[in-house]
Structures are given as structure tokens and as C-alpha cells.
């Protein structure tokens, strides 16, 4: 895809931005009273009920289908990462606030939660274990209120730089207070506290998963509901046209600030679930800029312009950090290349690609694109194989060539000491990449043609409706 097609994605998104005041074709009342229109929340349609029902059913059924310990661990991580990525998208997708310090609120919420859990285990006071993630949520909201009062006074690049500075400040302070942050070893805990209630102790992984799944579903519903509130709609307006929002009398800093606190609350819940799942936390892993960058990267890859995009991003994050890291030492390089590829060709993320094609299918224009899609997929696969083989040869030469110059790649033996192998792999990568670019340009031409036909269909429907 390209930049010219992402407008459709944004306009058809579940979390589509509020129309700018003064847009052509909008009545004057919508300009004068934007919150009145936003307050008229539509009823819960049957399709929306079906989607939420399928989401809940998936959370219940998946551990029954994938019963291994690894699968249960991955599902649990997906659960709390969905909450974290959705909370980050309140800032990035809903408010246009590029934050480089979201791990601060996840991590500090997690540290407060683990300290409270340890105190509960020591008998200092009583808090149900199932409510410990809420403790992390309130801690995240507190620190978001504290730091957000400063960061939300600015927007754009200045906001991003302030969040980066605060993130680095908190990460550096974690080494200065080992009593609270646990130093390099971190802090450990035991989530089994007190007597089991109805046989539930949260000791078994399956019980912990269903606690995470319950929080995941409820928090997802609440964050979706936030996008339908007047504050959520006004946050869209602040993102799109802050000058117009100020002109009609609203305080843009206050809108950003309240949204920042809400984002911190849900981030803290995700952090609380994270420490309950792993029963250990370290500052270097949970508060670093690298962790904040991961939330940004996968939220963008999933699709920040759509509500369900960060859900896809969270799933991709788990697969990348667990499965891809086991397959290759160069997994972070692959992530960087994928991110670059998505920024260049599909800035709407995976969710944006899905919704663009759903729109094409709705207008029954997908048929002419089927063969171009097949050709694009084949060319992309060939290019990926060539580039991946070249990357793996370079990594093997730098790290493992002392032990052996040969290694296995997709069932084939490659030798980094062979000039023939280097020439063959490099030639494959170059030729396949050139083939992909040629196929991509042809696909783009056909895609634009179908978009023109869709626009013509829309005009014809409008003319028939007004006739």
C-alpha cells in the first residue's frame, strides 16, 4: 500500500478521528457544538456484539486448543501486552502523542504492585490477589498524573523529547534506589498468598491465564468505550486540529492530560499482570527506553489508526520476542527491516491493510486484485529468502565461523568460506528485490485503478440518492 490509500483507513476506522470543524459538507451545528454530536453514542449493533462475543470466546477457548506450557505462556503474555499496547495507542493513535517513555508507567505500576503483593504475603494487610493489577493501575495513574502535568504542556516533537527524558531519568534513578527497585537482580514474589478461594490460588498457570484474560477483556471494552466518550472524541480533535479546538474554547492541554492519566492507569494494570505472571521484575527490563520503543514499534506495526491494531501488534510482539528470537540471532535486525518496510509501503499497519481490503471487498472490486496479490506475495517471498540468506551468512561469518563455516538455512547448506555461495546468495537477493519492486509498482497501478472505480461507484450512489 502507499500513503495515498491510508486516508480511507483512517476514515473507516473504529476509532476514526472526529471530523474537523468547518469541513465541507458538515452542518454548522456540528462545528459549533462538537461535544453534542460526540455524546450521541450509537447503540450496540449486532455486529459489534458478535465481534465482542468472538473475542471473549477466543480468550476462553484458546488455552483449550493450545495446551502446552509454551503456548499458555505466550497466551498470557499476549493478554497483558494487549492492555499495554492499547493503553499506548490512547496516546499515539487517539491523541497523536508520540511517547518514548510509556514503559515508565508500566514499570512503576509493576513495582508498586509487586511490593504490595509481598506485603500482603507477609501479613501486613490484606488485598485480594485478583485485585493486585488494579493496585498497579492506580500507581500508573498516579505517576502519569505526576509526570503528565509537565509532559502534556507541550505537543509534537517537544512532547516526545520530554517523555524520552523522563524515561531515561526514571531508568537512571532505578540504580540509585536498590531498596525499591531491587538493583540488578530485581524483586521476586510469590503470587500464591493465603488460602485458596473456591480452589483458586493462582498458582497454576491456567488460573493465572484466565485472570489475565478477564482483565484483558474488561480493559479492552473500557478503552473502546473511552474512544466513544466526549473526552475521547475531543482527543481526536486535539490530534487533528488543536488550534480550532482552542478557538472554540477547549483547553487542549487538559484534554491531553486527562487522557494521559487514563493511559497510565491501563498501562499500570498491564504491569501488575506482568509481575504476577513472571513473579519477578527488574528495572533494566521494565523501565528502559528499549522497552518503550518495543511498545511503540509493535503498536505501529499492528496499526495505530484502528482500535484493534494494537491487539495485532501485541500478538506480533510475543511471536517476535519468543519464537523469532529462537530461530535466528538476527531477529532484531529483521524487526527493524519489517518496521522500515511497513513505514514505506503500509503506514496504516497490518490493521490498515485489512481494512483497506475489506473496503475493496465491500464494493466487489477485489477480483481484479487477486492475481496481482498472488504475484506480489511470491515476489516478496523470493526477495525475503534472498535477503534473509545474506543476513544469516553475515551473522554466521561474524559469530560462528570459528566453529564451522557451514550452516543450515531452510534445508540448504551454506558455506561462508565459499565465494560461489556469496555470489549466488547476493545475486538472488538483488534480482528478487528488483522483481519485487517491479511487481509492486504494477500492483500499485492496479490498486489505484480499483480505488478510482470505487470512488466512481460512490458518486453514482450519491447521484441516485439525490435524484
From TrEMBL:
Q: Name one GO cellular component term.
A: plasma membrane
| Record Pfam families | BPD_transp_2
Tell where it localizes.
Answer: Cell membrane
Chain intervals with Low complexity compositional bias: 1-16
What sections of the protein cross the membrane?
44-62, 69-91, 97-117, 124-150, 156-177, 208-226, 257-282, 294-325, 331-358, 370-391
| Topological type in the membrane | Multi-pass membrane protein
- GO molecular function terms attached to this record: branched-chain amino acid transmembrane transporter activity
Q: Where is this region: Disordered?
A: 1-30
Q: Where is the signal peptide?
A: none
Its principal location? membrane
* UniProt keyword annotations, A-Z: Cell membrane, Membrane, Transmembrane, Transmembrane helix
Which PANTHER family does the record match to this protein? ABC TRANSPORTER ATP-BINDING PROTEIN, HIGH-AFFINITY BRANCHED-CHAIN AMINO ACID TRANSPORT SYSTEM PERMEASE
Output this protein's name. Answer: Branched-chain amino acid ABC transporter permease
Amino acid at each position: 500500500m502507499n500513503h495515498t490509500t491510508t486516508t480511507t483507513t483512517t476514515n473507516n476506522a473504529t476509532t476514526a478521528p472526529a471530523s474537523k470543524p468547518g469541513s465541507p459538507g458538515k452542518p454548522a451545528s456540528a462545528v459549533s457544538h462538537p461535544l453534542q454530536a460526540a455524546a450521541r453514542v450509537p447503540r450496540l449493533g449486532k455486529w459489534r456484539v458478535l465481534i465482542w462475543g468472538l473475542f471473549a470466546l477466543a480468550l476462553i477457548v484458546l488455552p483449550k486448543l493450545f495446551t502446552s506450557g509454551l503456548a499458555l505462556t505466550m497466551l498470557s503474555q499476549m493478554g497483558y501486552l494487549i492492555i499495554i499496547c492499547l493503553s499506548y495507542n490512547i496516546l499515539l493513535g487517539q491523541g497523536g502523542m508520540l511517547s518514548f517513555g510509556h514503559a515508565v508507567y508500566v514499570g512503576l505500576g509493576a513495582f508498586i504492585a509487586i511490593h504490595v503483593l509481598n506485603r500482603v504475603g507477609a501479613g501486613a494487610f490484606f488485598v485480594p490477589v485478583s485485585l493486585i493489577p488494579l493496585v498497579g493501575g492506580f500507581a500508573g495513574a498516579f505517576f502519569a498524573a505526576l509526570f503528565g502535568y509537565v509532559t502534556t504542556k507541550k505537543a509534537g516533537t517537544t512532547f516526545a523529547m520530554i517523555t524520552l527524558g523522563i524515561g531515561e531519568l526514571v531508568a537512571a534513578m532505578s540504580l540509585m534506589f536498590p531498596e525499591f527497585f531491587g538493583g540488578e537482580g530485581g524483586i521476586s514474589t510469590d503470587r500464591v498468598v493465603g488460602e485458596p478461594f473456591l480452589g483458586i490460588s493462582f498458582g497454576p498457570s491456567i488460573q493465572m491465564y484466565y485472570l489475565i484474560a478477564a482483565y484483558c477483556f474488561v480493559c479492552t471494552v473500557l478503552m473502546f468505550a473511552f474512544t466513544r466518550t466526549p473526552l475521547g472524541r475531543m482527543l481526536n480533535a486535539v490530534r487533528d486540529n488543536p488550534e480550532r479546538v482552542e478557538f472554540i474554547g477547549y483547553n487542549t492541554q487538559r484534554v491531553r492530560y486527562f487522557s494521559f492519566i487514563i493511559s497510565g492507569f491501563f498501562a499500570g494494570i498491564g504491569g501488575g499482570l506482568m509481575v504476577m505472571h513472571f513473579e519477578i521484575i527488574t528495572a533494566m527490563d521494565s523501565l528502559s527506553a528499549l522497552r518503550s520503543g518495543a511498545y511503540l514499534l509493535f503498536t505501529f506495526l499492528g496499526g495505530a489508526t484502528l482500535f484493534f491494531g494494537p491487539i495485532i501488534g501485541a500478538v506480533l510482539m510475543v511471536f517476535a520476542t519468543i519464537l523469532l528470537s529462537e530461530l535466528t540471532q538476527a531477529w532484531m535486525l529483521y524487526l527493524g527491516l519489517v518496521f522500515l518496510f511497513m513505514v514505506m509501503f503500509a503506514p496504516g499497519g497490518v490493521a490498515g491493510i485489512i481494512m483497506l481490503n475489506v473496503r475493496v471487498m465491500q464494493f466487489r472490486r477485489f477480483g481484479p486484485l487477486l492475481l496481482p496479490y498472488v504475484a506480489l506475495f511470491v515476489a516478496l517471498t523470493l526477495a525475503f529468502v534472498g535477503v534473509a540468506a545474506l543476513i544469516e551468512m553475515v551473522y554466521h561469518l561474524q559469530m560462528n565461523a570459528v566453529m564451522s563455516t557451514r550452516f543450515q538455512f531452510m534445508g540448504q547448506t551454506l558455506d561462508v568460506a565459499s565465494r560461489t555461495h556469496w555470489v549466488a546468495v547476493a545475486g538472488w537477493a538483488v534480482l528478487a528485490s528488483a522483481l519485487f519492486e517491479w511487481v509492486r509498482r504494477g500492483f500499485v497501478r492496479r490498486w489505484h485503478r480499483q480505488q478510482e472505480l470505487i470512488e466512481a461507484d460512490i458518486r453514482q450512489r450519491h447521484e441516485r440518492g439525490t435524484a
